[in-house]
Structures are given as C-alpha cells and as structure tokens.
C-alpha cells in the first residue's frame, strides 16, 4: 500500500534550482536510500517530506493518519530541554493513546446501551492495536534500554550541557521511540562511533515502519535499504531496485550502454557531416529534411559521464626519516585521564586510522600531536621536514560571510587580476581549479553560508590540499560528503606518498584507505593493529577470546575456591573461567533456563493481553496501575534471564 506520493516537486533558492519535477512513491515498510551529489537537494527534499518546509512546486500526499518522524543532520532542541523531557515528547502519541484508552475504559463502566457498549469495545480494540504499534505498555523500560545502549545514562541532564555526539544520541532515541510509519534520517551516523553505528543498523533493521535514509556510510546503506533513489541535478529522480551494491552494478551497466549509444551517435554525425560537405548537389530541396536532421544531431549534446570533483594536492617536500612520533604521552582533564602512556611512530606512506568510542580522546590525541594541547607527560617529536595540514571536523577555518572564491584563497572582488595556485608543478587559475571541484563561476560568487554541508566540506578539503603538506591530519573528513566525492577522496589518499592520520566512523572508508588502526579503548590506553578496519575487528575479537578468564583449577584432593559473594570482598578479582566447563549447579541452571524464559514471556504476554482487553478496565480499573508496574518488572526479568542464558552458553561453548 502506498504510504507517500510526491508529485512534481521543485525547489529553488534565488537563481539556483535545486531540483524540479521530482516524482516518486514510498510504500509501507519500504527501506529506501536517497543519494545524489552534494547540493542536489537531498536534505531539502527530506525537510519537504517532513512538512518542515514547503516546495515551490508540486505536492506531497501522505496516507491518512500516518506518523512521520524526521531526524535532521543537526537536531534541534527547545531551550531548557532535558533528556527526560525529550523522551516524553517522543512518547506523546503513546501517552495520548493510553489516556484515550483509560477514558474509554471509564465510559465503558457506565455504558448501559448495548449498541454503545459494543461501539466502545470496538474503539478500545483499535486503541489497543495503536498502543501495541507505538511500543506497547512498557515504554519506560524501552526508553531506558535505548539510552543505556547509546551511552546517555543521565535522564535529568540538560541537553544543552551534552556534547554534539550525545545530543545526536538523544535525538536518535527520541526518533526511535516514536515508532513512526515513516522515519526520515538525514546522516544519522554523523558523530557516532563505529560500534554505535553497528548497533543502530541492527535497531533500524527491526523497525516496522518505512525508512528513507540519507547517509555517506556505504556499509550502512548496503545493509539496510532495498531500493535507491538518486537525485540528479537537471534530470529528476531515478529509482534503482536493490541495495547499494546493486545500485552500483546498475549504474555501471547504464553507463556502458550510454557510452555505446554515444559512439554510434558520433559515427552517425560524422557520416552526416561528410555527406553535407559533398557540395551543392547534396543540398537540393529533396535533401532538406536530411540536412535539418544532421544539424539537430550536431546541436544535441551526446552522453556525458557525470562529473566528479577533481580534488588535487599541491606539491609537498619529501619527508625526512622522522615524521611524527609520540612517546609516553599522557593527557588529563581534571581527574580524568584521556591518554595514558601512548606510543605512536608514524612513517612515510602510512595511513593510520584512529577509532574508539565517543569521548575516548581521538580529537584530543590529534591536538596533542599538532601542538595545540601540551601533554601532561611524555613528548611529541616532529620531523624537520614535516609539514602538516589539519582538517578540523568543526570546519572552523571557513568564514560563512566570505564568497566561495575568497574562502578558497582568492582575492576579494575589489582587486583586479587573476589568482593562481600551484598543482603538480603547474600554475593553474584558481577559478579553473574551483570549476573542476564543481564550483562553477556562479557558485564562486556565492557566500559560504549558502552552501550545503557537503559543499562546505569539499571546499575546506580543496583549500587544505593547496597547502603543500606531506602529512594530512583529517578529523571526520567524510561527514556530509556525497558518495562520488568520497570515492575521489579515497583515490587521492591512496595515491598520496606522504603520511595520513585519519579519524572517521566510516567503516568502508577505513577498510579502503587505512594501513593500520590505532584503537583508543576509552580508559586512556591506545592499541595499534596492522591492516584496515575489518582486520582490526577480527584481531580484537581474537584477542578478547584469548583473554577470556578461565576457571581456577581445584588443588589435588580439594575444592576450587568459591567466587566472592555480594557481601564478601567487593574488590576481589572475579574467579577465572575456562570456556567449555560448567559447574554441576550451572549445568542444571542452564538446562532449566529455556523453560524459565518461556514461562516469564508467557506471563508477560498474558499481562499485556489483559491490559489490552477493554473488559479489564470495566471490571477492575483500579488495578491497572499495579498491572503496568508488574509488566515492567516482568520485562526486566525476561532481559535478565536472556543475559544469564547467553553468559552460561558462552562458558559452555567457548565464548562463541
């Protein structure tokens, strides 16, 4: 069934038309990825679909009663908002349904007429279905689960006090709790570490409603969507069935067909031109139609491969033997140690990816290496010929009031004369360089603040690469870039003969670019792994399995020492365990675990059915509050039993 239909959508800003004539349909439960070059209007289209802005032309039709939730790139919160208040906003539709359900239950108790009684029962049944769709009766537990997993434990904290990453996590929890019919996500993985991106991918995979997603994370896109919509400037929107990999295969096939058609057209045009040149005889009246056809063909534009930004690097001095080194580096903020005894030696040609949870100190480590922060212990050694260019994820180096041309290093409009840059030993006009970066002359006169996030990112990278650096320090350079520009950036870094330090949550990007990974574990420690991100994940899992605690062997003729109880030595080390061995008591516990879980789930399901039954409110409305408390307790018990089952299975199965 159709959930949303967009017809003839168009949007312009001044003389610049973002898109025109966009027509497409979203079906119920469909997972769609929205792709296109930076500036094509992806974010603007999402805002139109969310009714946050109006199009200049066209209309959007939404199925009656459908709930749409929109998560923008930079979520907004009202002044004075707390984590708890934002989750209450998310649960407002459910709260309204619960209140309506309770009101109907009260009316049901006093209903005398049989027809009215039947009508109220039917309304309560519909409301019960609505409550189940919105998350059921146990939403407080679900909210706690989401926030705990997202690393936002403090419900009473003001949102304004949170970091950008924490605010994004609250917004994600808020969006997921609404249980919408259509979830619109614009770059949801920005500011999230790789482990949280993995978790969000699994959470969205369980979503009942439809999903429209804008993301530069190609693994995320590939795993979640079953259709791709591509916005092409000047050519509307094209639909490709399948995931991201299938989309790429179809694009390759279409480009091959178009290239063949272009070759045939060029040969045809050449034949027509040769015929026209035969002289006056060829241009008699009976040949006028052929002449007009030839002229039309020559006026037509043949197939053109979509342009990609041509990022290029200015020539840099060759690195010396010492590039950049950190020895025993420590950094503390108050009582918190962010970096502890960190050792890193970078060599020419290395591309080091830096990963870790948010707050682990990735950006802090970069700033210590660059001398922006002094270490509390240890030292940083910089090679004599090392020239560093630093990409700041906050894009602080861009002045929003400057024009694109000025921001790229050009002279202000009042000054005459052409500006030039040095690229690969050649002198190139700055205007031509910007045009190669998909900033045509009209855009070069625009102010930076009018650019999209991806266009600003591309501009900052382009300016950075003109600095003639042999060490590139890039802090989240992939945010907001379109997929085509990401491919260009990957190719540039792979061909760069200097050294790269790269912080990014983009797993695909790390897999293609990184030669080694530095993992900040969150407790100040840093561990270096050879290879790309996938190799790092494999080696980390193997190390965790090898380090799994083994059970302490009993001395001859004696018994193994019991693990300390809750009332015993709290600081004592937990008893070592060897995977593959369970005690007699644990074996009996595991054997009965499946039945215990089944029984708990049956009690929980029965209580949910009781709460969903309108007769419950008519017979004993006063007991409903207690039933809901019992439901929360049962939900927690089911989770505890599952966790214990997994724990026992890991002991028995060697941690697999």
Automatic annotation (TrEMBL):
InterPro entries: AAA+_ATPase, ABC_tran_C, ABC_tran_Xtn, ABC_transporter-like_ATP-bd, ABC_transporter-like_CS, ABCF_ATPase, P-loop_NTPase, Val-tRNA_synth_C_sf
Gene3D superfamilies to which the protein is assigned, alphabetical: P-loop containing nucleotide triphosphate hydrolases, Valyl-tRNA synthetase, C-terminal domain
Domain ABC transporter: 4-258, 324-547
Keyword match Coiled coil: yes
Bias kind Low complexity: ranges: 547-573
Coiled coil: 590-648
Region (Disordered): 547-581
Superkingdom assignment: Bacteria
Name of the featured protein: ABC transporter related
Annotated source species: Anaeromyxobacter dehalogenans (strain ATCC BAA-258 / DSM 21875 / 2CP-1)
């Amino acid at each position: 069934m159709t959930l949303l239909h967009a017809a003839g959508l168009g949007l312009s800003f001044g003389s610049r038309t973002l898109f025109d004539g966009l027509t497409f349909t979203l079906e119920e439960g469909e997972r769609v990825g929205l792709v296109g070059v930076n500036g094509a209007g992806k974010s603007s289209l999402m805002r139109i679909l969310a009714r946050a802005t109006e199009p200049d032309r066209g209309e959007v039709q939404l199925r009656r009663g459908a709930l749409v939730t929109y998560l923008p790139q930079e979520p907004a919160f009202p002044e004075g908002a707390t984590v708890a208040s934002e989750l209450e906003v998310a649960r407002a539709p459910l709260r309204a349904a619960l209140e309506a359900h309770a009101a109907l239950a009260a009316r049901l108790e006093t209903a005398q007429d049989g027809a009215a009684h039947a009508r109220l029962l039917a309304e309560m049944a519909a409301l019960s279905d609505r409550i189940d769709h919105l998350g059921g009766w146990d939403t407080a537990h679900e909210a706690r689960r989401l926030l705990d997993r997202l690393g936002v434990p403090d419900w009473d904290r003001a949102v304004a006090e949170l970091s950008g990453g924490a605010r994004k996590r609250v917004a994600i929890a808020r969006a997921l709790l609404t249980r919408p019919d259509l979830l619109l996500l614009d770059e949801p993985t920005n500011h999230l570490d790789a482990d949280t991106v993995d978790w969000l991918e699994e959470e969205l995979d369980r979503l009942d409603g439809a999903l429209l997603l804008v993301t530069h994370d190609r693994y995320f896109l590939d795993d979640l969507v079953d259709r791709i919509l591509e916005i092409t400037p000047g050519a509307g929107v094209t639909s490709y069935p399948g995931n991201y990999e299938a989309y790429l295969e179809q694009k390759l096939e279409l480009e091959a067909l178009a290239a063949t058609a272009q070759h045939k057209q060029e040969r045809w045009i050449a034949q027509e031109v040769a015929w026209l040149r035969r002289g006056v005889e060829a241009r008699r009246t009976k040949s006028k139609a052929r002449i007009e056809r030839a002229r039309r063909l020559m006026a037509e534009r043949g197939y053109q491969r979509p342009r990609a930004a041509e990022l290029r690097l200015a020539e840099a001095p060759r690195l010396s033997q010492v590039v950049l080194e950190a020895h025993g580096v420590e950094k503390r903020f108050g009582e918190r140690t962010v970096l502890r005894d960190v050792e890193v030696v970078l060599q020419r040609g290395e591309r080091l990816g830096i990963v870790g949870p948010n707050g682990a100190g990735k950006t802090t480590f970069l700033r210590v290496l660059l001398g922006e922060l002094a270490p509390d212990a240890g030292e940083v050694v910089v090679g004599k010929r090392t020239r560093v260019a630093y990409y700041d994820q906050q894009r602080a180096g861009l002045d929003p009031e400057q024009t694109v041309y000025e921001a790229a290093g050009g002279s202000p409009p009042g000054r005459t004369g052409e500006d030039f840059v040095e690229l690969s030993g050649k002198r190139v006009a700055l205007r031509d360089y910007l045009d190669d970066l998909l900033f045509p002359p009209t855009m070069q006169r625009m102010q930076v603040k009018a650019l999209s996030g991806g266009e600003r990112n591309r501009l900052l990278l382009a300016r950075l690469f003109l600095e003639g650096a042999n060490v590139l320090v890039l802090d989240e350079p992939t945010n907001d870039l379109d997929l085509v520009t990401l491919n260009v950036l990957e190719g540039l870094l792979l061909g760069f003969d200097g050294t790269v330090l790269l912080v990014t949550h983009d797993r695909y990007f790390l897999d293609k670019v990184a030669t080694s990974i530095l993992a900040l574990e969150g407790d100040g420690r840093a561990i270096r792994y050879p290879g790309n991100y996938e190799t790092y994940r494999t080696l980390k899992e193997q190390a965790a399995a090898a380090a799994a605690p083994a059970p302490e062997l009993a001395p001859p003729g004696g018994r193994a020492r019991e693990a300390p109880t809750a009332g015993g030595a709290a600081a004592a080390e937990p008893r070592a365990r060897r995977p593959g061995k369970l005690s007699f008591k644990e074996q009996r516990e595991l054997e009965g675990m499946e039945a215990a879980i089944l029984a708990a789930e049956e009690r929980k399901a029965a209580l949910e059915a009781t709460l969903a039954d309108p007769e419950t409110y008519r017979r004993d409305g006063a007991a409903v509050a207690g039933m809901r408390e019992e439901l929360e307790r049962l939900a927690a018990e089911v989770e505890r039993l599952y966790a214990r089952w997994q724990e026992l299975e890991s002991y028995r199965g060697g941690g697999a």
